[in-house]
Backbone:
C-alpha cells in the first residue's frame, strides 16, 4: 500500500466518525476529518481532476456566497463564520472525490465493527462506555434507564441509523465490484441490521425502505422483512419507545406523522426556510437564525400546525434554534443555496439508483449541516454507483 492509499483510508476512517475528536468542540461536526484531509494532500500524487457539473456548482456557490457577504451582509462576523462553513463543506466534498479511488473495503469493515462494538458496550454497560469515551465526544445521551436506543459514537440514535445505512451502501458497492465476498457482505449486513434494531430510532421508519429498494437487493428482501419485524418487536419491549409509538399512530392515521416532535420541528423549520426565500430571495446574510422563527412563525401558518399538535410547547422552543442544516443555509443565502442544492441532487439522480439517492437528500434536508462529512460520504457513494453502473 502506497502512502497515498494509506492517507486516503485514514481520511475516510476519520470522516466516518464525525462526532469523535481528540479535543471535542461545542459542535456536532468535529474538525478532525478536514485537518486529516489537508495533511493527506501533501502525500497525494499531483494530477489534474476534470470538473464535472457538481464541481462547477460548488465553485459557483462559493463565489456567490462571497458576493452576498460583500454586498448583502448585515453582520460581517456572522457572515464570515458561514463562509467558513461553506469552505469546510467544499474541502470535504473535494476530499471524498479525490481520495475515493484509494478507498479499501477493509477500512469500511473496520468502521462498521467499531460502531457495532460501541453499540454493544453501550447497551451492556453505559457507564463503562461513558467513562471510556466522554473525553472524546461532546455529548453522550444514552443512559441505562433511558427509553432511547443506543447511539454508539453518535449523539443521537437517528444519526447511528443513518451512518449504518451509508456503511451498507459502501458494503454493497464493494460487493458489486467483487471486492468483498458474499459471506462477508451477508455478515456485515446482519451487523448493520442489528445496529439499526438496537438504535430503536423513529428515523428507521423513513430510511429502512432504502434497504428494501436498492438495486440488486431483491435476494435479501426476506432477511430485511424479518429485520423490520424484529425492529418493531424489540422496540415494543419498551413502552415509551418513540419508534413504537410512531408506528402505532401511523397505523391508525398516517396524518399523525406530524405528532412526532422531531419530525414536526424539522418539518416546520424546513417550511420556514422556504418561506424566507419569498421574503428575501438573496437571503439574510449575517442575520441571526432566531429572528427567522420569530418573523415567519405566524406568517407561514406554522403556529396553526403546532397548535393542532400535542407537542406545541416543544416546537415553539425548538423553532428558535437551528434544527435543520437546510433551513440555516437557505435563510442565509436564499436562492443561491437552493440552486446549488438542486444541481448537486440532480447530479446523483438515476432511475437505477433512485432509492439510494435518498441518502444525500435526507442528509441535506434534516439535521446535518453541509459541513458534516456524512453529507458528502453519502453523496460520493451515490455518485460512484451512478457513474460506474455497478
Residues:
Amino acid at each position: 500500500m502506497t502512502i497515498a492509499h494509506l492517507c486516503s483510508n485514514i481520511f475516510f476512517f476519520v470522516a466516518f466518525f464525525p462526532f469523535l475528536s481528540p479535543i471535542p468542540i461545542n459542535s456536532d461536526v468535529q474538525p478532525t476529518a478536514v485537518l486529516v484531509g489537508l495533511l493527506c494532500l501533501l502525500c497525494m500524487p499531483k494530477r489534474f481532476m476534470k470538473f464535472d457539473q457538481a464541481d462547477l456548482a460548488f465553485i459557483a456557490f462559493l463565489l456567490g456566497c462571497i458576493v452576498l457577504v460583500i454586498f448583502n451582509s448585515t453582520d460581517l462576523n456572522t457572515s464570515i463564520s458561514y463562509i467558513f462553513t461553506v469552505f469546510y463543506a467544499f474541502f470535504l466534498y473535494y476530499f471524498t472525490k479525490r481520495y475515493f479511488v484509494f478507498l479499501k473495503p477493509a477500512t469500511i469493515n473496520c468502521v462498521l465493527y467499531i460502531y457495532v462494538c460501541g453499540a454493544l458496550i453501550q447497551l451492556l454497560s453505559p457507564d463503562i462506555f461513558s467513562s471510556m469515551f466522554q473525553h472524546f465526544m461532546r455529548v453522550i445521551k444514552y443512559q441505562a434507564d433511558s427509553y432511547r436506543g443506543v447511539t454508539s459514537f453518535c449523539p443521537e440514535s437517528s444519526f447511528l441509523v443513518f451512518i449504518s445505512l451509508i456503511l451498507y451502501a459502501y458494503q454493497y458497492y464493494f460487493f458489486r465490484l467483487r471486492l468483498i465476498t458474499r459471506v462477508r457482505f451477508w455478515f456485515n449486513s446482519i451487523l448493520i441490521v442489528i445496529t439499526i434494531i438496537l438504535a430503536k430510532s423513529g428515523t428507521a421508519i423513513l430510511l429502512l425502505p432504502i434497504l428494501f429498494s436498492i438495486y440488486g437487493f431483491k435476494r435479501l428482501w426476506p432477511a430485511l422483512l424479518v429485520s423490520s419485524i424484529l425492529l418493531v418487536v424489540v422496540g415494543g419491549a419498551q413502552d415509551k419507545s418513540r419508534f413504537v409509538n410512531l408506528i402505532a399512530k401511523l397505523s391508525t392515521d398516517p396524518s399523525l406523522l406530524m405528532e412526532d416532535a422531531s419530525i414536526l420541528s424539522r418539518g416546520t423549520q424546513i417550511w420556514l426556510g422556504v418561506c424566507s426565500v419569498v421574503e428575501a430571495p438573496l437571503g439574510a446574510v449575517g442575520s441571526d437564525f432566531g429572528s427567522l422563527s420569530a418573523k415567519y412563525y405566524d406568517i407561514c401558518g406554522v403556529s396553526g400546525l403546532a397548535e393542532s399538535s400535542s407537542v406545541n410547547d416543544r416546537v415553539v422552543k425548538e423553532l428558535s434554534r437551528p434544527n435543520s442544516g437546510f433551513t440555516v443555509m437557505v435563510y442565509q443565502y436564499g436562492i443561491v443555496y437552493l440552486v446549488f442544492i438542486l444541481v448537486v441532487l440532480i447530479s446523483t439522480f438515476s432511475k437505477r439508483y433512485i432509492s439510494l439517492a435518498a441518502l444525500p437528500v435526507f442528509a441535506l434536508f434534516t439535521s446535518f449541516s453541509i459541513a458534516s462529512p456524512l453529507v458528502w460520504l453519502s453523496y460520493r457513494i451515490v455518485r460512484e454507483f451512478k457513474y460506474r453502473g455497478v
User: Anything to note?
Assistant: The first helix runs from residue 3 to 15.
